[in-house]
Amino acid sequence: MTSTNTALAAALEAASAGDPRRYVITGGPSSGKDDLIEAVHTAGIPCMAEEPGREIYRKHRERLGRHLLREDRREYSLEVLEAFVAEYTAHTGGVRFYNRGIPDGYGWEGFFGLKPTSELEEATKQYRYDAIFVLDPLDTFEEPDDIVWAKDREIRRVHELIVQGYYDAGYEPVFVAPDSAAARLDFICANLRLPKPSRGA
User: Model confidence at 140, in pLDDT bands (50, 70, 90)?
Assistant: First the structure.
């Protein structure tokens, strides 16, 4: 898709001939990530189609006939990691946004009381992103079908562990305050010195 914002389209075209620039959008459940990712696509900015972990989770859940438990996490996490590495290495030039990133694995492993695998630690060192944008949680809940959350504090706990995982991986995340998806995308683009999608369309 080509951006309807001519200034943004020109900036993306110019960047496409250069080195890859990889930007992660992440956050815990109920952060508005899906709406923001949709806004990224609508703006014509290259972006992952869907978070790999969701489809892999559904596949494992269908096979097991239940939600994943702690003892199921290792196999699942390694498959998710493989998908993220494939997404990373497939991008060879220009701007691209990622729907979560490799270090998200630290947060999810921590939530289930597991230590990070050696594979995750090695991938985190080898495959580095240029910027991390963490969405602060919203009041609304999204995708309740994917994972069973017993309490609101679990949502907050996952969010905190994901953030800590990025700090532990050596990143300084940029926090994106609750707002409309369009306003959040404008904020992110301004931070990256890209034209704001909402202007000049």
Answer: low
Element of type H or E holding 77: helix 73-90
Cα–Cα–Cα angle for 75, 81, 87, nearest 5°? 140
Strands (E), 55-185: 94-99, 131-135, 174-176
Beta bridge mates, 95: 21
C-alpha neighbours within 13 Å on the C-beta side of residue 78: 6
The DSSP line for 162-191 is HHHHHHHTT--PEEE-S--HHHHHHHHHHH
pTM of the full structure: 0.88
What tens digit of pLDDT does each residue of 7-49 get?
999 999 999 999 999 999 999 888 999 999 999 999 999 999 8
User: CA 20, CA 18: separation in Å to the nearest integer?
Assistant: 7
Question: For 83-105, how does the pLDDT look when each residue is reduced to its tens digit (9 = 90+)?
Answer: 999 999 999 999 999 999 999 99
Confirm if 115 and 67 have CB atoms less than 8 A apart.
no
